[in-house]
TrEMBL record:
Keyword Nuclease: no
Keyword match Transmembrane: yes
Protein name: DUF4282 domain-containing protein
TM stretches of this protein: 68-92, 104-132
Disordered as annotated region, ranges: 1-39
Keyword entries, A-Z: Membrane, Transmembrane, Transmembrane helix
Ranges of compositional bias, category Low complexity: 9-39
Highest taxon, organism lineage: Bacteria
Species lineage: Bacteria, Bacillati, Actinomycetota, Actinomycetes, Streptosporangiales
Organism: Nocardiopsis metallicus
């Protein structure tokens, strides 16, 4: 879809990586200017520890360590599953409360599955928030906001 002359440019038609020119009507297309008073901070390429001790919170480390957090959380869920499994089997061998072992075993499986699912959902939502932030920063740098 092309825009007639004199109408704003369709951002999807702009080549990848090309920044808009300084605003105004140029070459039959309207170019947007950055918001008044807005100065974009220079992107810093700090390391992990530099971002960790960035007290202005301009660098995010959560997106960098989310995979490690997820793996550690899955390991903790697996340890909890093993304890629940051992407890359920031990309870089945008990003469007084053996009938509670089967529901406990089922609860261990269901609880573990729900824990993995909810963990994944929460971490994905967290990543979505960070990606929204990155996309908004890209739009702001391009001068669209």
């Amino acid at each position: 879809m092309t825009n007639p002359p004199g109408y704003p440019q369709d951002p999807s038609q702009q080549p990848y990586g090309q920044q808009p020119q300084s605003g105004g009507y140029q070459g039959g297309q309207y170019q947007q200017q950055p918001a008044a008073g807005y100065t974009q901070p220079a992107p810093s390429r700090t390391g992990f520890f530099g971002a960790l001790f960035d007290f202005s919170f301009r660098e995010f480390i959560t997106a960098r360590i989310i995979k490690v957090v997820y793996i550690l959380w899955l390991i903790m869920i697996a340890i909890g599953f093993l304890f629940g499994l051992i407890s359920a089997i031990a309870m089945m061998g008990d003469d007084d409360f053996g009938f509670l072992g089967v529901p406990m075993l089922i609860g261990t499986f269901v609880g573990t599955a729900i824990s993995v699912l909810l963990s994944r959902i929460v971490l994905e939502l967290l990543i979505v928030v960070f990606r929204i932030s990155e996309d908004l920063n890209a739009i702001r740098k391009r001068g669209g906001m």
